[in-house]
Predict the structure.
Amino acid sequence: MIEIRKLNKAFGEKAVLKDISVDIKEGELFSVIGPSGIGKSTFIKCVIRLLTPDSGSIVVDGQDIASTKSEFTLARVRRSFGYLFQEGALFDSLSVFENVSFGLRYLTDIPKSEYPRIVREKLALVGLRDVERLKPAELSVGMKKRVSLARSIAAEPKYILYDEPTTGLDPVTTGMVKDLITDMRAKLGVTSVVVTHDMKLALDISSRVAMLYGGEFVEVSEPAAFRNSENKAVREFMEISHLSRDGRRHI
């Protein structure tokens, strides 16, 4: 479980996160929705402490990591996380095998002799086979997303964070990524946190959806209740996203 209390983060005079408090429950798929540039990526980067909050607490499995300066503590907690970066962030000079096994070398004590088996298993989980020797330049956009996800689950994390997983993708690849996210939750039992501007994606896959607006979560609810929210920011974003109250797109 991740317990967040009064989380604040500012860049200069711009307050991006203001007193955010929320519990992310074990096994759920929690999505943070909002327009691009609103602070969604800042939120999950604080959760994994890629960014240090200005104040507040982030308790992961009983350990508050919000203000700790202990690299040992951070490294130990980060082993519980997989992170799918917005652009995939594969290392172009490394093969698929080297990319997927990268975290195993730095986050675990697993013997190198086990890497081939683990890499094959994780690639198979995301629907890829016989690609270990390829370089990222030889992969399609969809395949790169799959390899990035395989890398994020290689060390068998308890939590997976997805940063704008469908940005810039065509509808077919977006559907594939949507299926991958739900499959990982079903197959691995992980707790998933997705930040996205894609309202339909969030409503389709989530157990709960949070709307970030003005630095605050103005709505946190299950999809059915979220669709019927009377909050002005939610209603306006639903309209911008061309979604009706039943979550269907309209023209």
Observations:
- The CA atoms of residues 34 and 197 lie 5 Å apart.
- Strands lie at 2-11, 14-24, 29-33, 55-60, 63-64, 81-84, 159-163, 191-196, 208-213, 216-221.
